[in-house]
Amino acid sequence: MQIAQDLPSPIGTTAAGGAGKEPVARNMEAVFENVTHLVSGNAVVVFTLSGCCMCHVVKQLLFGLGVGPTIVELDRDASGRDIYALLLRLSGNRQPVVPAVFVGGKFLGGLETVMACHINGTLVPLLKDAGGLWL
């Protein structure tokens, strides 16, 4: 069972044809590059919505373990809508999209995956390997 997977490129999943799609594809490519840079440059990144209870649980779990994740609250970030759209596209249009947790530059998952890793004992070693936890 593979726990983490690489962030796939959204390019090529855009509907082809028509000049009207190009600016959207370019914008999505720029958002993808920004998100890729963010998650590869930080040990733990969590994309959240400020009023989401599932996001709160993930953040509190990570804080409780001693992790200082980079948190992007999509409803308070200037490019939050675009990042949310990217996460939705990369998830295969499945709900819920947030929380979206990245560890060591790879997508770990949402609340269920993070809690499952915590319960089965794989979360702490994963965080240590990524440099997000030192103890």
Question: What does this entry look like structurally?
Answer:
The protein is of the alpha+beta class and 135 residues long. It has one domain: Glutaredoxin (3-Layer(aba) Sandwich). The protein is built from five helices and four strands. The chain has a four-stranded mixed beta sheet, with helices on both faces. It starts with 21 loop residues before the first helix and ends in a 5-residue tail after the last helix.
Question: How many helices does DSSP assign?
Answer: 5
The Rg value, from CA coordinates, equals 15 Å
Name the average pLDDT. 85
Task: State which percent range the strand residues make up.
Answer: 5-15%
CATH superfamily: Glutaredoxin
Helix residue percentage: 40-55%
Please give a quick description of this structure.
This protein is an alpha+beta fold and 135 residues long.
What labels describe this entry?
alpha+beta, disordered N terminus, 4 strands, globular, 135 residues, 4-stranded mixed sheet, Glutaredoxin
Topology, element by element:
Blueprint (H helix, E strand, L loop, with lengths): L21 H19 L3 E5 L4 H13 L4 E4 L6 H11 L9 E4 L2 E4 L1 H10 L2 H8 L5
Parallel strand pairs: 1-2
Antiparallel strand pairs: 1-3, 3-4
